[in-house]
């Protein structure tokens, strides 16, 4: 982002500086004065809100001046606009230029990497967090303020506070419970600047895949392709082919446009194909395209299943193809949008076919034939002298339309490219040469540029001309320089410039080069180009195993190279894990993509400035048009955003300030520290001094390991390219096991013996005896068989587990001597590795139905855990959970609910009211920051003023104010209630509240109830208020919240109305609302009766407690939230009743918290308002900022588990498994505050006896291929 301006006063002045800078970083400013007519001085000052920094000060400039100086950008904490002031003074010259630049606060680059993307329950997750400084990609002392781990239900199950990094790396681990919920877990970290990064992994009960399926199928099929070949291959992770069968299904999808369907009865068709893999693990099939019913356009979906011989294990693969009548695709690539008259115009055309003849046309100028190479590419270069300095259109095509039959034809589409001439008044040009490939980051690079300078544009007798270049990288000026060439005023000057890009590694991923010169008449000649550079990082890291293959159990060495004093995190992961759950690879490119700026482009809105474009093109001049004046902007403009003049080179393409002409006197206007390979990963944290060798034992698994590493050091960050180690031996046995079994469930154990030796061998396979299971040979099975080279045989047993937990299964395969022939070969014994023994464990679980009994006791007490009479032996487990804040999890996004009110009188209140209760909640829990408070108050003030515009003269409110015939009763009460709640935060004129109250009093009927008058458009705002009783209760509660006394005549009448309706307590919503109203009124007898009735109607959801409408077993939406919230308000707004303490309220809070959506709210405005009001009141009742509680759980045998809850971990979900599943546990809480404790007893029960009177089965027949699809459904009843 370069700011560049030309100041003209018989001389030319230029100043360049990046338009966006980072606080604390060193930037460069360049100043240039060309041919001063008198001694001059220049002062360049950077002005911010609180300081002025003189960047350059130079006096007595009498000849050409060019100087670049570094300067330190002031540190800022928020994005700030500063100005660069340029002052040039002389005896006759006094010029000033002020331009805005943007200073951004420095940012850190954060990333998280776990040792693998998926875990099993009970495993330990290891995570590395890294923090890099944006400017240098280096690491220094830093820390993470908070790191938290959340389970799939958003429970915070892990927490780390104020953890310091080692050279930028923080290693964390968390042991997952064997009972951990399956699903996606999220680890989120905040650094000291509150920057946030999140990373996810999965917990799942899985069996690793043994092989992967790859499909070779054309991605584009044309109407001329009568047949295509489908090739399906399967390979084990260690690289060997899979022998088995392939079932493939190819389905056509016809485009649904009427002109694409020549016949109305054309339907989508699916065809199935079967294959067998050969010695290479592949199967092929030629597909006749006419079978699939495609004639002009559509797509194909291919799904394949490969079943391994012997085991029945199946893996899937899929791909798709486009079916088109376009015989060939042609496009222009790497072709400029502008040309420079007199200079070669170069580009290339790409096509979807090789060796294809293409016709390239420029109307009335060029008509040439190109032929694509083996890559489908054709290059071209044209002389532009005959292009008349006007826009031209390039067209390329492969031929015409050839119709081969009625339905199928092939079509050769054309490619188009519009090119504009580059504008130069003097016909002088400069053009950078594109590099043929990415520049190497390990050596300097040479940049070349060609120029044409007209002699008529030079000063008489001028012998030399200076060219200047600027190199931008990552948004900053990285290099600059000046080049002088010889020129002659009597002719056209042509030549080439060359200069070097130094330290390309520091410029990656792009070097943005701008080259320019300024002619004596003030015209600038320039060009710019982005040069891609190989992605590389400051710390050169490499990783290599001592050998690419190794035997399982063998010792191997891992060589790691990095810059001295590096701290490295290394992991090796089983390729099978990546097949199960692929993840993005960490490499140099992915790290560089995290940079805030890779290519400078466009201007931030807050530093846009209006300046004139002096470069008007003859074909662009429109009669009576406004002067060419536009913003310095990144917004697209049809003419000036193309790089077809010098103005736009500096201004838009590279986000640079354009060349601006200022006139004085009139002139011419121109490591994660893991153990050995004990799971599917390895790792270590090590301080490396150049190189280190780490010895490891290869795990006893036949697979491929993918190893990677990243390192940090004072030099910077680095990532090693991935390296592989294949753990393999030519003779081995592999077991096929499920993830888990049910005790006494029978399954077939399959052991596959693989022989990759050059000769056949006789193999004897033995299953070791174990008291953990019973085993029987399968019928007709033999356990000594011949296995020839590149083959496998599978052996089977019938296994029945007899114990719970992990059951170990051991199988031994031995090559034995035999006189029998294997095929036509004599059996041989291998010289080494004659036996292979493998042991795997399978999890045996309790059978059938799972029960959980939750017991919540948030006070000192004893809890008895007992089992029913009938349960599965050894299945009982007990857990205790401690949590300091029930609402913390659900209300974590509450700040996202803050919104600016707008719209009509109803819409405005929909957004105004929630802001009040958000503030109340945040304030009651000590989470209200000045920034959030200022934002919320701004919204409240705006909403208050807006709502007053919808007030009627009589004090009531409606959607459109005085445009409506009258105010609305409910809306007026809602406004009155909300204004009363907002009084503690903003100024509310009491007259507005009083006038609303007086209007409502005029709507009171003789029986004390209130009449519903006026129109309400958004009736859903009212929630459950739907009749005279609920409306009266709502208004009465609103008046009581405002402090209206019970003795007020209006209040006495309304309470009389409500007492008369309280006898009908069949409506749960009415009962809940009345319970809150009479609580506010202080009528304890009515309150007691209503709450007791509600307690009888309460429903339980585990720990949660809630209310539904009559006969609704499950909650149905916002009405249930609103009712439950009113009950909570009733409990908390008056004295505590026996049996209705905070522990009772905690159950309601638990259920309400689980109903919150991802944005912090609930289903509707009314339930959100009432629920937030209730939750805020609950948090105020329990929150103690200085409180700390110690909870001790003592087992029947005297063993103790202790938990501490304080302000730092009150959101942490703490859980432990109890030592004894049953018995009486003593619970003791000491300290000050409130804590939630939950006991859970898990056990299994036997399945109920099968009492079904009959069985029913259904089968579907094949769908016929007709215009109206049909199939046969067969139902069988026994």
TrEMBL record:
Report any Pfam family annotated for this entry: A2M_BRD
The UniProt record lists the Alpha-2-macroglobulin bait region domain at 430-580
Q: Does the keyword Glycoprotein apply?
A: yes
Q: Extract the PROSITE patterns matched here.
A: ALPHA_2_MACROGLOBULIN (PS00477)
Domain (Alpha-2-macroglobulin) ranges: 660-767
GO CC list: extracellular space
> Which SUPFAM superfamilies does this entry report, sorted A to Z?
E set domains, Terpenoid cyclases/Protein prenyltransferases
Provide the leader sequence positions. Answer: 1-19
> Among the record's GO biological process terms, what is one?
nervous system development
Matching entries from InterPro entries are given as: A2M/Complement_sys, A2M_N_BRD, A2M_TED, Alpha-macroglob_thiol-ester_cl, Alpha-macroglobulin_TED, Ig-like_fold, Ig_E-set, Macroglobln_a2
Name the Gene3D superfamilies on file: 1.50.10.20, 2.20.130.20, 2.60.120.1540, 2.60.40.1930, 2.60.40.1940, Immunoglobulins (2.60.40.10)
Look up the coiled coil feature and give its residue ranges.
none
Write out the GO MF terms. serine-type endopeptidase inhibitor activity
Q: Which keywords are on file for this protein?
A: Disulfide bond, Glycoprotein, Protease inhibitor, Serine protease inhibitor, Signal
Q: Which family does it belong to?
A: Belongs to the protease inhibitor I39 (alpha-2-macroglobulin) family.
Protein name, entry field = Alpha-2-macroglobulin-like protein 1
- Biological source species: Sinocyclocheilus rhinocerous
């Amino acid at each position: 982002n370069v700011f560049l301006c030309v100041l003209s006063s018989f001389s030319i002045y230029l100043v360049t500086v990046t338009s966006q800078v980072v606080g604390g970083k060193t930037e460069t400013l360049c100043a240039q004065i060309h041919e001063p007519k008198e001694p001059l001085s220049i002062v360049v000052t950077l002005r911010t809100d609180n300081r002025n920094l003189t960047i350059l000060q130079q006096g007595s400039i009498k000849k050409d001046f060019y100087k670049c100086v570094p300067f330190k950008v002031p540190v800022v904490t928020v994005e700030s606009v500063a100005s660069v002031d340029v002052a040039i003074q002389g005896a006759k010259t006094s010029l000033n230029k002020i331009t805005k630049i943007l200073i951004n606060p420095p940012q850190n680059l954060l990333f998280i990497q776990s040792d693998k993307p998926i875990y099993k329950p009970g495993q330990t997750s290891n995570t590395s967090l890294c923090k890099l400084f944006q400017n240098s990609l280096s690491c220094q002392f830093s820390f993470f303020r908070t790191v938290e781990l959340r389970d799939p239900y958003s429970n915070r199950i892990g927490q780390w506070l104020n953890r310091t990094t080692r050279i930028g790396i923080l290693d964390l681990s968390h042991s997952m419970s064997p009972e951990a919920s399956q699903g996606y877990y999220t680890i989120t970290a905040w650094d000291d600047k509150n920057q946030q990064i999140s990373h996810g992994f999965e917990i799942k009960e899985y069996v690793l895949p043994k092989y992967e399926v790859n499909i070779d199928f054309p991605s584009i099929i044309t109407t001329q392709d009568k047949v295509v070949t489908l090739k399906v291959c399967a390979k084990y992770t260690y690289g060997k082919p899979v022998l088995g069968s392939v079932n493939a299904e190819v389905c056509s999808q016809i485009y649904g446009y009427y002109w694409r369907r020549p016949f109305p009865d054309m339907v989508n068709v699916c065809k199935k194909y079967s294959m067998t893999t050969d010695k290479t693990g592949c199967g092929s099939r030629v597909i006749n395209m006419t079978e699939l019913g495609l004639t002009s356009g559509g797509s194909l979906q291919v799904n394949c299943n490969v079943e391994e011989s012997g085991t029945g294990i199946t893996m899937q693969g899929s791909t798709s193809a486009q079916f088109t009548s376009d015989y060939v695709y042609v496009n222009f690539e790497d072709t400029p949008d502008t040309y420079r008259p007199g200079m070669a115009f170069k580009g290339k055309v790409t096509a979807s076919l090789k060796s294809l003849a293409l016709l390239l046309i420029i109307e009335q100028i060029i008509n040439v034939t190109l032929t694509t190479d083996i890559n489908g590419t054709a290059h071209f270069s044209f002389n532009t002298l005959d292009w008349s300095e006007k826009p031209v259109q390039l067209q390329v095509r492969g031929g015409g339309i050839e119709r081969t039959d009625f339905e199928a034809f092939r079509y050769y589409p054309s490619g188009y490219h519009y090119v504009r001439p580059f504008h130069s008044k003097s016909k002088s040009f400069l053009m950078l040469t594109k590099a043929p490939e990415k520049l190497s980051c390990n050596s300097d690079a040479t940049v070349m540029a060609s120029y044409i300078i007209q002699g008529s544009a030079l000063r008489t007798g001028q012998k030399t001309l200076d060219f200047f270049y600027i190199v931008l990288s990552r948004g900053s000026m990285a290099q600059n320089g000046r080049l002088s060439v010889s020129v002659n005023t009597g002719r056209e000057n042509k030549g080439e410039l060359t200069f070097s890009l130094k330290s390309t590694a520091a410029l990656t991923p792009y070097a943005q080069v701008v080259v320019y010169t300024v002619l004596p008449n003030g015209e600038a000649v320039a060009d710019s180009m982005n040069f891609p550079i190989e992605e590389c990082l400051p710390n050169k890291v490499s990783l290599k195993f001592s050998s690419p293959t190794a035997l399982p159990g063998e010792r191997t060495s891992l060589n790691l190279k990095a810059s001295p004093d590096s701290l490295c995190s290394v992991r090796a992961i089983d390729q099978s894990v990546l097949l199960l759950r692929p993840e993005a690879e960490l490499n140099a490119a992915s790290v560089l993509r995290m940079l805030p700026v890779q290519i400078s482009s466009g201007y931030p809105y807050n530093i846009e400035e209006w300046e004139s474009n002096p470069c008007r093109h003859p074909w662009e001049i429109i009669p009576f048009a406004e002067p060419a004046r536009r913003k310095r902007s990144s917004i697209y403009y049809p003419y000036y955003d193309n790089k077809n003049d010098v103005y736009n080179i500096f201004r838009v393409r590279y986000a640079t300030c354009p060349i601006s002409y200022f006139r004085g006197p009139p002139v011419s206007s121109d490591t994660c520290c893991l153990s050995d390979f004990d799971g599917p990963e390895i790792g270590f944290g090590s301080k490396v001094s150049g190189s280190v060798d780490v010895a490891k034992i290869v795990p006893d698994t036949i697979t491929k390991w993918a190893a990677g590493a990243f390192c940090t050091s004072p030099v910077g960050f680095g990532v090693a390219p991935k390296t592989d180690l294949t753990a393999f031996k030519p003779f081995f046995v592999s077991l096929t096991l499920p993830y888990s079994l049910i005790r006494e469930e029978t399954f077939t154990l399959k052991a596959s013996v693989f022989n990759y030796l050059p000769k056949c061998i006789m193999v004897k396979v033995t299953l070791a005896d174990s008291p953990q299971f019973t085993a029987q040979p399968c019928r007709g099975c033999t356990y000594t068989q011949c296995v020839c080279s590149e083959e496998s045989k599978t052996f089977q047993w019938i296994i029945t587990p007899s114990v719970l937990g992990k059951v170990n299964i051991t199988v031994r395969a031995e090559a034995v001597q035999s006189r029998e022939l294997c095929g036509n070969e004599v059996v041989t014994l291998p010289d080494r590795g004659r036996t292979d023994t493998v042991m795997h464990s399978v999890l045996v679980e309790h059978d059938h139905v799972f029960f959980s009994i939750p017991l919540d006791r948030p006070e000192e007490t004893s809890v008895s855990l007992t089992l029913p009479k009938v349960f599965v032996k050894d299945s009982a487990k007990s857990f205790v959970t401690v949590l300091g804040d029930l609402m913390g999890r659900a209300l974590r996004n509450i700040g996202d609910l803050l919104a600016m009110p707008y719209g009509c009188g109803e819409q405005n209140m929909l957004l105004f009211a929630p802001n009040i209760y958000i503030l109340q909640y945040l304030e009651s829990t000590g989470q209200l920051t000045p920034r959030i408070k200022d934002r919320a108050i701004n919204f409240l003030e705006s909403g208050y003023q807006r709502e007053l515009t919808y007030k009627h003269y009589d004090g009531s409110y409606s959607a459109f104010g005085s445009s409506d015939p009258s105010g609305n009763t409910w809306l007026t009460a809602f406004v009155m209630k909300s204004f009363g709640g907002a009084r503690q935060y903003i100024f509310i004129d009491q007259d507005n509240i009083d006038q609303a109250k007086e209007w409502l009093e005029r709507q009171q009927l003789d029986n004390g109830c209130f009449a519903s008058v006026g129109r309400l458009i958004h009736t859903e705002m009212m929630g459950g208020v739907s009749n005279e009783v609920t409306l009266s209760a709502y208004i009465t509660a609103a008046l009581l919240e405002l402090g209206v006394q019970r003795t007020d005549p209006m209040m006495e009448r309304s309470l009389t109305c409500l007492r008369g309706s309280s006898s009908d307590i069949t409506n749960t919503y009415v009962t809940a609302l009345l319970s809150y109203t009479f609580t506010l009124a202080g009528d304890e007898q009515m309150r007691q009766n209503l709450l007791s009735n509600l307690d009888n109607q309460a429903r339980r959801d585990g720990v949660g407690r809630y209310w539904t409408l009559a006969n609704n077993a499950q909650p149905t939406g916002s009405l249930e939230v609103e009712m439950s919230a009113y009950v909570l308000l009733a409990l908390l707004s008056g004295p505590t009743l026996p049996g209705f303490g905070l522990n009772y309220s905690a159950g309601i809070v638990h259920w309400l918290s689980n109903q919150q959506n991802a944005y912090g709210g609930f289903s509707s405005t009314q339930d959100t308002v009432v629920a937030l009001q209730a939750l805020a009141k609950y948090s105020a009742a329990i929150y103690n900022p200085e409180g700390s509680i110690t909870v001790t759980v003592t087992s029947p045998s005297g063993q103790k588990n202790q938990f501490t809850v304080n302000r730092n971990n009150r959101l942490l979900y703490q859980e432990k498994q109890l030592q004894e599943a049953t018995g009486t546990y003593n619970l003791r809480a000491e300290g000050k505050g409130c804590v939630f404790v939950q006991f859970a007893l898990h056990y299994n029960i036997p399945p109920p006896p099968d009492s079904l009177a009959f069985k029913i089965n259904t089968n579907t027949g094949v769908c016929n291929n007709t215009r109206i699809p049909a199939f046969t459904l067969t139902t069988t009843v026994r």
